Amino acid sequence: MPFRLLIPLGLVCVLLPLHHGAPGPDGTAPDPAHYRERVKAMFYHAYDSYLENAFPYDELRPLTCDGHDTWGSFSLTLIDALDTLLILGNTSEFQRVVEVLQDNVDFDIDVNASVFETNIRVVGGLLSAHLLSKKAGVEVEAGWPCSGPLLRMAEEAARKLLPAFQTPTGMPYGTVNLLHGVNPGETPVTCTAGIGTFIVEFATLSSLTGDPVFEDVARVALMRLWESRSDIGLVGNHIDVLTGKWVAQDAGIGAGVDSYFEYLVKGAILLQDKKLMAMFLEYNKAIRNYTHFDDWYLWVQMYKGTVSMPVFQSLEAYWPGLQSLIGDIDNAMRTFLNYYTVWKQFGGLPEFYNIPQGYTVEKREGYPLRPELIESAMYLYRATGDPTLLELGRDAVESIEKISKVECGFATIKDLRDHRLDNRMESFFLAETVKYLYLLFHPNNFIHNNGSTFDSVMTPHGECILGAGGYIFNTEAHPIDPAALHCCRRLKEEQWEVEDLVREFYSLKHSRSRAQRKTMSSGPWEPPAGPGTPSPPERHDQPREKQPAKQRTPLLSCPSQPFTSKLALLGQVFLDSS
């Protein structure tokens, strides 16, 4: 008998006052210009509160108006907010913050750091800011974008992460010490997202620096997960990186798994890699076959496909946006509208929502101002222009301002039922939530460039086209210009072919040099046809020769916790009683 969902009627809705610019009785859509300014004011209220009360700590504690370190003591909110400053048009503050980060951020500290969080927030944030520096009016050094202080910082941080990948399977540990590498007693259990969320940042870093080690380890990790999927095509939630055996066998699209699927799609687009897209499409078939019910996505047992948890997690709200990237607009909109009903019920998305009961799950009633539903709205609005998506943006602005705004910023909502607050403002609020809201209401922002304008930059390797659009957001909403990956690569055959075409106009000697270059280039990476036995990956113990500038190698990770308390690196957990 097919599993069906029974959604209770008469859900209680949170009614919030509408400001000027909200739809009136005539059903007019929210005024984008009005809400764009509201979002900008939200950003500066939070950003200024961080600078005044929390810097140089990682994050702001808005209820006590002070700061605390959360992911490693990197002034994390400043790194996460940097590209948002430019998207909002504040070039002068962008330039100031670049100088501050160069002078103050130090990765040579005795701290256990999350490999996943360091990559998406620190490496991703620095890479994005590096690639946007010239547009922000920063005086870039000769050779940019193939060199620069923010790029060196990103490389330094990423190199700190490499020891985590030195496992028999090539799948990384979840935590690393910034000075000492992987601690001897470190748990080998890592969530799926913590293994498969590196290809965007690491491939970009390899392309810009010329060092293939980063992209290599990211691809090995992706391939090992692909090999480890079940016979019905699903992956679980947590795996032992030493043995390759699944520890948590719940399969779904949410916490602990989400950005793995996201990076297969975004990695495929960024790198024009058909194999990565083929892998995602195979997963997508299995997801639709076993987890998809009435436009909701449930959790199932990865080997049997039987439902284990009929819940919706707020982190799953990225999925409609991802569907839009592969052109599955109709399914994306139906799922989005389901999620939007939950938002309207509570004025936010609870971490867990019991679908059959139509209510929150005990101890998972909070909303830490996550961006995922807003992110999906932005993607879908670009694809459809449906004004319903602007209405979600309006509702988000009204809800967050009414419930979460305090004197020193915006506070996490501890419980959506009674609007109790928690003393934390996550850095992703400025990196993602505000950014996606602003871009939803700003159709002419440079991020949405359709290729009609671009910048031409001369590099040591020839002319490079940047800023033409098509930006790929990492999972922390840091935009990467895909054209930049073609500016500095020396070993990719496609780059040499372009250069050879140019040389044909100037010299007849290109044939010999092209043949020499082809012997240097490596063939395309091929994913295995099916599950297989992982082989030990190449070790990368020795760093490449460093530049004269001091190279501090960084790495982030969260404090060691019992397995049941950290089922997901993305902040979502399952309890023993679940």
From TrEMBL:
Primary location group: endoplasmic reticulum
Pfam families on file: Glyco_hydro_47
One example GO MF annotation: mannosyl-oligosaccharide 1,2-alpha-mannosidase activity
Biased composition (Pro residues): 525-536
Keyword annotations: Calcium, Endoplasmic reticulum, Glycoprotein, Glycosidase, Hydrolase, Metal-binding, Signal, Unfolded protein response
Any one of the GO CC terms: endoplasmic reticulum quality control compartment
Residues that, per the record, bind Ca(2+): T475
Entry keyword Transmembrane helix: no
Annotated SUPFAM superfamilies: Seven-hairpin glycosidases
InterPro entries in alphabetical order: 6hp_glycosidase-like_sf, EDEM1/2/3, Glyco_hydro_47, Seven-hairpin_glycosidases
Top-level lineage group: Eukaryota
Localisation per UniProt entry: Endoplasmic reticulum
Function: Involved in the endoplasmic reticulum-associated degradation (ERAD) pathway that targets misfolded glycoproteins for degradation in an N-glycan-dependent manner. May initiate ERAD by promoting the first mannose trimming step of ERAD substrates, from Man9GlcNAc2 to Man8GlcNAc2. Seems to recognize and bind to exposed hydrophobic regions in target proteins.
Annotated protein name in UniProt: alpha-1,2-Mannosidase
Species assigned in the record: Phodopus roborovskii
Lineage: Eukaryota, Metazoa, Chordata, Craniata, Vertebrata
Gene name tied to this protein: Edem2
